[in-house]
Structure formats: structure tokens, C-alpha cells
Amino acid sequence: MPLLLFIALAVVPPLASMAGQAHVTGLFARGMIFALAALGLDLLVGYGALVSFGHAAFVGLGAYTVAILGAHGIHDAAVVVPVAVVAAAAFAAATGAISLRTRGVYFIMITLAFGQMAFFTASSLAPYGGDDGLTVSTRTTLFGYAPLGRDVALYYVIFAVLACAYGLMRFLVASRFGRVFRAAKENPVRVAALGFDVYRFQLAAYMVSGVVGALAGVLLANATEFVSPAYMSWRRSGELIIMVLLGGMGSLHGAIIGALAFLLLEEWLAGVTEHWKIIFGPLLVVVVLFARGGLVGIGAALARRWWRG
Amino acid sequence: MAEPILRLEGLCKSYGGLDVTDHVDLEVAPSGVHAVIGPNGAGKTTLINQICGLVAPDAGRIVFAGHDVTHRPVHARARLGLARSFQITSILPAFSTLENVALAVQAHAGSSFRLFGRADREEVLNGPAYAALVEVGLGERAHVPAGSLSHGEKRALEIAIALAMDPKLLLLDEPMAGTGREETERLVHLLQGLKTRLPMVLVEHDMTAVFELADHVSVLIYGRILASGPPEAIRADRQVIAAYLGEGE
Ligand SMILES: Nc1ncnc2c1ncn2[C@@H]1O[C@H](COP(=O)(O)OP(=O)(O)O)[C@@H](O)[C@H]1O
Ligand SMILES: [Mg+2]
CATH 3.40.50.300: which residues of chain B? Predict the structure, then answer.
């Protein structure tokens, strides 16, 4: 199924241009960016039962790295990406070190608080547009070349980053590290009694997740050519959680499907009626409440039924 | 006596006004089974929890394998070689039986900050894990989810997990709790085999099991050590009979 998903994503641009619907490529590009952020979040929510409600802060951090460095004439990925990664890892280390001392609702609230802190910090960056945000005049270059100039090229860069991140995450959750992390979700006391410092494992996963979010942010700034504090708002964080739940948490490809479904559904409903939010909200609630495994779970159940005849 | 593997000095813990651990001094020999018996609510589990680090004592000292571990976290004590089973089964239900044990092997087999390679395929982890499962009689059940094991099998799994940690001391909190006669006998037999190579602290209600296994018995009542000595002496102790043993027999 994940393979089919990536094949489908790979053929979007040619199909879209054949159908004369080039804007669909842009829509899927944005979808994949959020899929990347949701993928990182799924590591925490799905594999660690750590519901981080401030994940948009990392996306914003990545996006602002592009915009702020860009405002100073630095556009090259060789600088932008490492800076974004280090900034996100540092922010994750600092906020995670505190948040991970708490559990359950407290964890949700404290990550939300850190997310809001990032949001207000961005809003107060007067030299960089404050509340209004700022435009990204030049897309990120790679060693002086400008491979992201064309939208289709950008699309495939996003695609490649998403595919790599997915592959790395797969390895990660199956590794020794991932096994300890997954076990800590089920029974942290048992895992500690085995001799594992659960906190360290969770902090490392929190940092990985934050870095993935920041990479999504770097791509987002390139795709929209604009950044604003809204990227970091708690609503964005909430949407990322919903994407993970909608697709089916703890499966990785579920997060990707959830993010794509979320954006496509939003786009489609917004085209059908201006009161789309009245339908969209309850629809999400129904899927999340009644299909515990999300869309992936529904798909698996249908496949089983069909298989049996 | 040789240097004790575990020493408790003046350990105290109270919840509200209730003294659950009341100036407990205890020495556990580096070999054999040291049983801790006492009625429900005597503070046995709380004592075990303090030894392994899940509960912080109000006062006193815990010395394990020559280290003062009073203020060390749970995982650090486990790394020093302290393994335990839980009175209320504490396993990873969604993991396979084998993986439950393999994770315990992993805990002392090199680094766990390894981000690549499938952990569930690592022979260096699965081999010893499987051996521990065979030892407790769960070899056939290696690949089923641990959550689907019977109660008795889960108790055996707890012991396999503790064994796989290759510990210096095993703390067993009522390993026979809730198991049937036959399973209890199997567990007693298993522990009898283990006691030759591993010292244990055994908290247990089943007096037959205790007197079959123990080399030393301490009686805990209302958080206090009422008596401590060889099993024959404890069985004959007037105070103990009056306070505890008498009621059941
Ligand atoms: N976290 C706690 N808070 C308050 N009281 C507790 C707590 N844990 C145990 N107790 C009380 O301490 C006493 C001893 O409990 P426990 O150590 O579980 O006894 P045992 O294992 O000997 O049956 C009981 O009266 C119990 O209610
Ligand atoms: Mg108890």
C-alpha cells in the first residue's frame, strides 16, 4: 500500500498537466509537505502516545529559517537546511526536556504553551514582518543552482524528501531505538525496570520529530513563497494531529494519507459550498471517533471483507 | 556471612499517617532465597518498590551490590543488576512473547541508540531471549502476542524477562499470585532450579511455596520486620504464629 501511494504521488504532475489542471500539482505539493510534518508527528503520537500540540512551531521554525536567511541574502540549501535542522533540534531539546517530564493532558498543554510562545515570538519579529509575515523572494538554491525554480521540480524535491523521510522513519521504528520507544508507549514502568532511561529515548524521538517538522517548514516556505506566524498557530498544530488521526496513527503511511485526504477534502468541500466548515468538522470527528484505525484502518477492513468474498 | 548483595538500613516510608515501611533493616545474602512474608497490606510491595526505585523512601539507605542506590532512578538500579517481577503482571501486551524478553536482553547488550537494523531480527538478542523462554517453559509461545497468554503463562513470562536481564538479584513480588495449584508447583520447581545461580527476594503468600524455597525468612507486619531467620525458626516463632501464620492454618 505505501508503494502504491508513492507511485500515485509520482504521477500526479504529468496527469495534472495532461488534464490541464496544473494547480492540482500545487495542491498535492502542499499536501505532501503537510504529510511530511504529520509523518514526524506520527512518530510521537502513534508510536509514543505523546500527543504534542505544538508541532506547528517546528514547521514555522523551518519556514522562518528560509525567510529570515533569505532576507539577508542567504538562499542556499547548504546553509538553510543545516540551520533549520539545528534550530529545530535545539528548540526540541529545550522544550522537550521540560514537556517530557509531564504526562497525558499536561504534556498536551505544555507543548501547546511552547507552540504559542513560538507563535508570539514570530508575531513580534517586527523586522521580519511581525503579524503580517513576509514574502520569500527567492526559492532555496542548491550550491548556486536553482532547481526549485519550476513548480514541477519543487514537487519532485518535496516528493523525494517525503519518500526519504518515510523510509528513514520505517527503519527508525523497527530499530533497537524504535523498539524501546514503542515499548515505553505500552508500559513505561516495565521499560524503566529493564534498565532503559525512557526519558532519553523520548527526548531523542521528540527531536527527530521536530527536525522532520522543520524540513516540512523549509519546503512550505518554498512552495508558498511566503511565511507568517499563522504557520505556527495552535490551529495548525491541531490540524496536524487530526491528519494523523484521520489517516490512522502508528502506521506512518496513515499520516501521509491523512494529510492528503485532509487537504483534498478541504479543497473539494470549499468548492462545493461556502459553509464547508460545517460539514468538514463533523466529518473529521466521525472518522476519528468511529474508525479507530483512521482511513488506513477502514481500507484494511474493506480489503479483508473483499478478500473473504 | 559474605558481603550481602542488598542491605536496607533504617528504611522508612509513610503514606499520610500510615507507616508502610517502619525502620526496616534487612540484609539479603548473595545466594539463596530470602522470603518476605506478611499479611495483605503489610507493606511488602511498597518495600520492593523502594528497593527497585519506583517509590522513594522518606528515610534510610539502600545499598545494592556495594553501591548506595537510595537516590538512583529505576533504570540505573536495573543496570546495576536489579531485576524484578511485578505483583500485577507488567508486560508489553502488544509485543510478541519473544520480543518482551528480547528487549530485556537488549537492555544490557550494547547500545540501544541504534537507529538502523531491524531489532526483531537480531539473533544476538533473540537467541538468549528464546533460551530464557524455554527455561520457563514458554518456548512454544514465543511468537504469540504476550497479551494473549494465560495468566500463569504471563507470570512465567515475567520471570523470563527478569532472567534475560542477567541480574545480580531477582525481586519477585508474589510470582504465584492468582495461579492454580499445578502452575504454582511448576513455578516452585522453576525457582528451585534458579536459586542455585541467582539470589532472590521472594514476596509470597503461598506458605507451602515459601517454606519449600526459602533459605531465610523475614516477617513483615505493619511495615515492621517482626522476625527474621531460618525457615524452621520462623515456623516455630510464637510471635509470628500469633501475628500471622496462625491465622491461616
Ligand atoms: N501510593 C500509595 N498511597 C497511599 N497508600 C498506599 C500507597 N501504596 C500503598 N499504600 C498503602 O500501604 C499499605 C501497604 O501496601 P502494600 O505495600 O501494597 O502491601 P502488601 O504488598 O504487603 O500487600 C496498604 O495499606 C496500602 O493501602
Ligand atoms: Mg503486594
Answer: 1-21+29-81+169-177+198-249
Domains in chain A, CATH or no CATH each: 28-308 (1.10.3470)
Q: What's the CA gap between B159 and B192, in Å, rounded?
A: 13
Write out pLDDT tens, residues A127-167: 898 888 898 888 888 777 777 778 889 999 999 999 999 99
Closest CA to A147 of A226, A75, A83: A75
Chain B contact set for A196 (CB, 8 A): 75, 107, 112
Q: What is the pLDDT of residues B138-186, one digit of tens each?
A: 999 999 999 999 999 999 999 999 999 999 999 999 998 888 888 889 8
**What fold is seen in the domain B1-21+29-81+169-177+198-249?**
Rossmann fold (3.40.50)
- Per-residue pLDDT of B228-246, as tens digits, reads 999 999 888 877 777 776 6
Nearest alpha carbon to residue B100 among B169, B156, B173 = B156
For residue B162, give how far its alpha carbon lies from the nearest alpha carbon of chain A (Å).
8
Q: Which residues of A touch B118 (CB under 8 A)?
A: 174-175
Residue B125 buriedness (CB in 10 A; 0-12 / 13-18 / 19+): buried
